[in-house]
Design brief:
single chain, 205 residues, mainly alpha, 2 strands, 75% helix, rod-shaped
């Protein structure tokens, strides 16, 4: 929810900039200045265009900073997911390589988008800046799709690994039970007997 609020806040700031730059010169006093010099007035109130330009620059800077933070969060999450993928033991090397490649491509997309947003901000291109910021969630659904899918695979791999450990333990337990029986031990003798304990563990598994 906070992530979506941040993206909405960024795009609203840029939208304000775009609407302001579309105003005629006579209305600059009610919005943001876009002219290099001079001043505009509305209702007899003079407003320095330089102040409007400063506000415009501030809004662009804030939008740029928030976009950087959101992209960095996604890149960090993707790197963490990639670490989990490489630690999987049930996936084949080919499967892990394919998944890791997909994650890395998303990281590359994020890095490229981050560079493009910086270019938009430096060029004072508000329309491009707005579109690129919106694409963080609309075009690259890192938290909505990529991370959850990777987490499901990682959890599945962990479950299968634990299942394999139990299977191995059960086989070892059966070997000990068989050896004890072959030695003439009564596996059910005494409620606290060591061999009865092995039998209970076998039933539990």
């Amino acid at each position: 929810m906070n992530m979506n609020k941040n993206i909405i806040a960024m795009t609203m700031s840029v939208a304000i900039l775009i609407s302001a730059s579309a105003l005629p010169a006579s209305a600059v006093g009610l919005g943001l200045g876009v002219s290099a010099s001079g001043s505009a007035s509305a209702g007899g109130v003079g407003v320095g265009v330089s102040a409007g330009a400063a506000l415009r620059a501030q809004l662009i800077s804030k939008a740029h900073d928030r976009a950087d933070q959101e992209i960095t969060r996604r890149v960090n999450a993707l790197n963490a997911l990639n670490t989990r993928v490489n630690a999987m033991v049930r996936l084949s090397a080919e499967e892990k390589g394919s998944l890791s490649s997909t994650i890395q491509s998303q990281i590359t997309f994020m890095n490229n988008l981050q560079a493009q947003i910086a270019t938009d901000a430096a060029a004072d291109s508000t329309s491009s800046l707005k579109a690129d910021i919106q694409s963080i969630t609309k075009s690259y659904r890192i938290f909505a799709l990529v991370i959850p899918q990777g987490a499901i695979l990682a959890a599945s791999d962990r479950v299968e690994t634990i299942g394999g450990l139990f299977t191995s333990f059960a086989a070892q337990l059966q070997t000990r039970i068989t050896a004890a029986q072959a030695a003439g031990n009564d596996m059910d003798a005494g409620p606290g007997g060591p061999f009865r304990f092995l039998r209970r563990r076998q039933v539990t598994i």
